[in-house]
UniProtKB/TrEMBL annotation, chain A:
Residues 43-113 form the Release factor glutamine methyltransferase N-terminal domain. The keyword Iron-sulfur does not apply. GO terms for biological process: methylation. Signal peptide: none annotated. PROSITE patterns: N6_MTASE. Keywords: Methyltransferase, S-adenosyl-L-methionine, Transferase. It is an enzyme of class 2 (transferase). PANTHER family: HEMK METHYLTRANSFERASE (PTHR18895), MTRF1L RELEASE FACTOR GLUTAMINE METHYLTRANSFERASE (PTHR18895:SF74). Pfam families: MTS (PF05175), PrmC_N (PF17827). The lineage of its organism: Eukaryota, Metazoa, Ecdysozoa, Arthropoda, Hexapoda. One of its GO terms (cellular component) is mitochondrion. This is peptide chain release factor N(5)-glutamine methyltransferase.
From TrEMBL, chain B:
Residues 113-148 are annotated as: Disordered. This is GH22113. Its main location: mitochondrion. Keywords: Mitochondrion, Transit peptide. GO terms for cellular component: mitochondrion. Residues 34-127 form the Prokaryotic-type class I peptide chain release factors domain. GO terms for molecular function: translation release factor activity. It is found in: Mitochondrion. Belongs to the prokaryotic/mitochondrial release factor family.
Length: 328, 148
């Protein structure tokens, strides 16, 4: 199935990268022709239909995001009808190449180069997993539980762009966060985001791939934490056929592939937590739709005396997806 | 339900901030409070798998206030999470206008602004008048001096 999908999608991706990398040439020629302004509403002509043909949903929102990005204005300061807004020729060229990329289903967040997560804005980078809105709900829940804690020594397993750790650090000054991440690109991006947000004093990130009996990098092998959070890959292998091009073509599937039952990586995190949580410490996980009851069973059967199932929670779309576990 | 309660907390704290920062001329005593149990919230996400499997950016939030039937749609921010808070603020203002009419904060602010602008006009008029008087006085003084 995946192989069958890949061919046409690969060409999609190539055309998107081509569209994005054309920048220097086109801007150079168009800026030379002078500073003529064109109304944004004129520049929009036909693009909505093109986006729809390419299978992009929510076209109004996509257009507004790209317009505000091109004009370097904040999204909420741009009027919905774009009245009075104008592009110069360089901006028009940017606008068209971004939309070309979007028609090739490049994620909006990659085109814009940044995205919001809770109260912070994070840089995005190709191949690094884009944080999802449900994860905001997850982090809000964790923050709510640790608001009154005095000091929290936290570990995040698989931090990606750093969204969860950095928004925790941003919200709670008493948190100290360590993160491990298997992708080099994501490790670098998380560190960059930490510096951009001025949170690098309380944050460290290590490039490390978690393996059985080598859960943590050598330098951290005897560390114990009060709290471990993780959003491990949890998409079941047979759900991969339903993934959108934005996900399959542009995101790193390592951040999604949870094996046949979606819990392959989560099991490694359970084992890691057995070693690296202090007694009474908590493990919070964001998982898929059917996972919380499954996790409860696994705790009873395999982790008796080591980890205990505390509670599960719903995301904002009323799907039971978050679990809290406790080190015994 | 839990996440809704925490949202309400966010909202009330931002409201307190507004109360504290705004001028003392406004009467907030009738300003209503929002019960999360009275709100029907619709988040656009669609069916199918959520989470990691999809990358949707729907930002639009709909609220319906069940006791009054007031509705609010908000897509001001890129994030749905921010729009959920914003939509509640808008709903509160709508509810205030609905319940309190002339006494609502918006109406009070309007009256206050009108007063301010008419006061400013009055002062400007007075200043103009004084200027004119001064000018004519100076002129007559100059006239008097040249006569000497």
């Amino acid at each position: 199935m995946l192989k069958y999908l890949k061919r046409p999608l690969l060409t999609l991706r190539q055309s998107a990268t081509r569209a994005l990398s054309n920048s220097t040439k086109t801007t150079a020629t168009t800026t030379a022709t002078g500073g003529r302004l064109i109304e944004v509403n004129k520049a929009l002509n036909g693009w909505e239909a093109k986006l729809k043909d390419a299978g992009v949903q929510d076209t109004d929102f996509n257009l507004k995001c790209i317009v505000s990005h091109v004009l370097k204005r904040k999204f909420n300061t741009v009027p919905d009808d774009f009245s009075q807004l104008k592009f110069n020729s360089a901006q028009l060229a940017d606008f068209e190449r971004f939309l070309e990329a979007r028609c090739a289903r490049m994620p909006l967040q990659h085109i814009i180069g940044e995205w919001d997560f809770m109260d912070i804005t994070l840089k995005t980078a190709p191949t690094v997993f884009i944080p999802r809105p449900e994860t905001e709900e997850f982090v809000r829940l964790v923050i709510d539980n640790y608001k009154r804690a005095e000091h929290v020594n936290m570990l995040e397993v698989g931090c990606g762009s750093g969204a969860m750790s950095l928004s925790m650090l941003h919200a709670l000054p008493q948190v100290q966060a360590t993160a491990i991440e298997r992708s080099k690109a994501a490790t670098a991006l998380a560190w960059e985001n930490a510096k951009l947000l001025g949170l690098q004093q309380r944050f460290e990130v290590h490039n490390h791939t978690m393996e059985t009996d080598k859960y943590m990098p050598e330098s951290l092998h005897d560390k114990r934490y009060d709290l471990i959070i993780s959003n491990p890959p949890y998409v079941k292998t047979d759900e991969f056929q339903y993934l959108h091009p934005e996900v399959v073509v542009y995101e790193n599937l390592n951040a999604l592939d949870g094996g046949s039952d979606g819990l392959r990586v989560a099991r490694l995190v359970f084992d890691l937590a057995c070693v690296h949580l202090r007694p009474g410490g908590k493990l919070w996980l964001e998982l898929g739709n059917e996972h919380p009851p499954l996790v409860k069973t696994i705790m009873h059967l395999q982790y008796e005396g080591r980890l205990k199932f505390v509670q599960s929670y719903q995301d904002q779309y009323k799907r039971e997806r978050f679990v809290q576990l406790e080190k015994v | 339900m839990l996440q809704l309660r925490s949202l309400a907390a966010v909202l009330s704290s931002s409201l307190c901030h507004r109360l504290a920062s705004n001028n003392a001329h406004l009467d907030y005593s009738r300003y209503p409070s929002l019960q999360e149990s009275d709100i029907e919230e619709t988040l656009m996400r669609g069916s199918g798998p959520g989470g990691q499997a999809v990358n949707k950016t729907n930002n639009c939030v709909f609220l319906r206030h069940l006791p009054t039937g007031l509705t609010v749609k908000c897509h001001l921010h890129r994030l749905a999470s921010k729009n959920r808070i914003e939509a509640r603020k808008i709903l509160l203002d709508k509810l205030d206008a609905h319940l309190n009419g002339e006494q609502s904060i918006a109406a009070q602010l309007k009256v206050f602004d009108q007063k301010k602008s008419s006061e400013r006009k009055r002062r400007q008029g007075k200043l103009q008048e004084m200027k004119k008087m001064w000018q004519s006085r100076e002129m007559s003084n100059v006239d008097g001096e040249t006569e000497k």
